[in-house]
Amino acid sequence: MSPFDETFAGGLDTAVWTPSYLPAWSSRAAAAATWRVADDGLYLTIPPDQPLWCADDHHPPLRVSGVQSGNRSGPVGSTDGQQPFRPGQRVREAQPTVLGLTPHHGTIEVETRARIGPSAMFSAWMVGLEDAPERCGEICLVEVFGDTLADGRAAVGSGIKAFRDPALVEDFVAEPRTLDVTAWHRWSVDWRPGHVAFAIDGEPTRTCDQAPDYPVQLMIAVFDFPEHPGRDSADPADVPELVVRRVRHRPLVDAQPNARPSPR
């Protein structure tokens, strides 16, 4: 796999990025992000009129604008989809296979700034393609909820989420840090066989002595939870915004090539 360096200078390349959040469970149109590209990167926002995601199925209600560097599913009516949020969930719209960036090991960096109120959060994470159900583990680069922001500090989540991968165990923490999410920050992981090292702005933060052992896709999104008790629609921060300035992947020398999903 060749190095990948995305600054969105040429716009949003839909051969790489799908601007809908897990669209198999609804549709690409219903899960579409609100986005634009400007000189300083990709803007993901959630305006007041953006509809709920999977409105008749997901509880509590949420809205989301996100992009993902891979997308796939089985046929309508099957359970062959990515990141199901309940047992037995069925595909509502079959998805084409798009493998824009699907690394297997290497260094991955995502540079962002965000504006979020108490009812919002943003995240960047890498998750298995789920070409087999157990290939679903997650490496979370960053996860920040707006209700943890206070006095120049934020609870910054990172780590491994096992989901249905029997080879992984949950190892996710949200650690309070002196950090202003409205400023630019570089969230990164160095991913090697059986080991992941996390860093913020080049400073090491934590390590995990386990890792998914299959290709992953990158997900970057901002979320809004309309029923959150801290919601204030008069506050500009309650129109959540995430700006992505750069995404990079540097493969290991002996990294495996960009892998295609295997038959289920």
From TrEMBL:
GH16 domain: residues covered: 1-255
Region (Disordered): 63-89
GO molecular function: hydrolase activity, hydrolyzing O-glycosyl compounds
A GO BP entry: carbohydrate metabolic process
Origin superkingdom: Bacteria
Alphabetical list of PROSITE patterns matching this protein: GH16_2 (PS51762)
Protein's name in the database: GH16 domain-containing protein
Organism in which the protein naturally occurs: uncultured Actinomycetospora sp
